[in-house]
Amino acid sequence: MNKKRATIIFDEDVSGKNYDENKVAPKIVDIITFDTILRIDNHLKNFMKARVILGDVTTQQKALKK
Fold this sequence. Notes:
Elements: E1 6-10, E2 29-34, H1 42-53, H2 60-65
Antiparallel strand pairs: 1-2
C-alpha cells in the first residue's frame, strides 16, 4: 500500500475575514509536496543530526535543502 500525503500552502490567510457560512472561502494553491523516502548511509545521517545539534539548521530536512 503506497500512501501519499500532500502539503498545501495558501497565498493568503482567510481566517480573519468574514464570509457567508454557506460559501467556501477562496483558496489559491501555491505549492504541493509529497513525502518520499530517501536512502542515505549512516555517515550522512550522523552529519545531518550534528548540524541540527550544533544549531546550524533547525531540522534535518532544512539541512538537506541547504
